[in-house]
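[Q] Does anyone have a clean structure-token version of this?
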Amino acid sequence: MGSRSRLAIALIVAAIFALTLAACGASGGSTTSDGSTAGESPAAEANKKAKQEFNSSKSKVPKFGQEASVGEREAASAVLAENLQARGAKDWARQCASLSKAQAKAFAERATYYHVGKTCAKGLEREGKSAPAAVFVDTMTDPIVALRVKGKKGYALYHGNDGKNYAMPMELEGDEWKVAEVVTTEIP
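[A] Here you go.
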């Protein structure tokens, strides 16, 4: 058998081997210690991480929609952090700036109803006077773990500094994520 024949046979065997691996689902990427595959997109890695970390939850929130892109998650995380810091400081105007238009309008209407003004900030201030102290605690110290999105609605998921898991409804307005509620929800 000539060298060309041996080379042709070797190439055929290699091609068959490669096709066999592809058919069996081999990814070609190496698996990391956290179970993700090297070379996965950041959104796919975040999706996998969120499923692992919030998997024991009985809530449907961690399974809502799809995982957002890394850029969207980072943007939503920054807005949520700003919102929670403002809420904790009772800086009502700053908190209103991070709220969705619908939430800001609702609090402006409450201010008008209670005759304390006509702004979102006055509405939040009025509601804040009767809220329990626990509402003002900022439990977020790290960026959100996941941003679950379906259309213009989303949920920011994060681990609280108190050992609990939380979700905050978010809403996409234009190209900005805004906070769609004023109180975080604990995920059991």
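[Q] Thanks! Anything notable?
[A] The longest strand covers residues 165-173.
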